[in-house]
Amino acid sequence: MKFLLYLQAAVGSLLQHKLRSFLSVLGIICGVAAVFAILAIGEGARREVLSSISRLGLNNIILRSLDPGEQNNFSGKTYGGLKQSDRGHLLATVPMVENAAMARELTGLVVLADEQLRLPLLACTPGYRDLLSFNLSAGRFISDSDDKDEALVCVLGGGVYKKIGVEGRLGGMLRIGKLLFRVVGILEESGVEKNVKSPVGTRDIDGTIFIPFSSHRYLVASQNRGAEPDVSELLIRIREADQVEDSVDLIRRVLEVSREGEPTVQVIVPRELLRQSRKTQRIFSLVLGSIGTISLLVGGIGIMNVMLATVSERTREVGLRRAVGATKKQITAQFLAESILLTSVGGVLGLVAGLAAAVIISTFAGWPTGVSLTALLLPLLMSVAVGGFFGLYPAVKAAAMDPVHALRYV
Q: Where are the beta strands (DSSP E) in 217-289?
């Protein structure tokens, strides 16, 4: 009951000076909005990075062939380019390797009834799907017999299937270049937006056509039939998560020993990239969160100034209340309730403004945002704490007034 009485008195007092109360709380609104928007952007970025790297597999190590002049933008050394024999070599020499899959990137001209589409192709071994864990919506993926027999079969990404339409139906024939491939499977759409850039360059599964690794030789005119096919990517799964770092060192050593000349293999470790991304995001959130906290403190100073002015204006009121029996504790509680009410309302309005800012940033800048319980509660609790901290001194000052002198105040 006392709390409700203090709250009612605080509301009545603040409503007597609506404009001043609103202007005094603007700093709190801006500070809370800044903190909320920062946390929302940080949470969205965290989810996007986690999703992107998780799609690569946290127990996986990825080796990618680079062009001789291409720069390695990831941590680790580079070595002479990948060959088909590297898969068997690593399986035999690195005991921590559980499985490995090869892939080669190509581009194919898909000839439809009324148009021609140039789409990315990925020639891969059957284990590629298991290592990256993407799902089928119909049919099957490439099998061991398909790869062994150099079968002209293909699996369509969900986006390719939607684009091609009826000509990409399961069991139908799809013309790629001069060859006819039978559609044996269709993948589920991943739901990943194409305009969202991954920090590790994850493949656009939805927009890709998959064919057996051995069958790609038919699409490469310059490839000699007896020569060993080039490998764009070697995907390696490690048995245990705690063996990934040791495996990376061993794989690098094996590649280094077996190669001479121009270094053209990129080593990507998703688990290490995830660790680095989390560290970077923590620093980013800490720096920007500090800026938002400073805004809240500045708003708190404004609240203190307004409350001190209010105490001065209401000196006679304080003296009258003390004269009729109000205790120092009650006077302190009354003014403290006004301060906390101001910052609490500012906190709620700041959350609304921060949510609007996050939506605008996400819409126009294309940055992902995410709202978590922390993003909602932390700014609001901070605003309440600021109201209590900066309102305490004016409240104590009001309670410390001499009732006699306060009644004489003009």
A: 233-238, 265-268
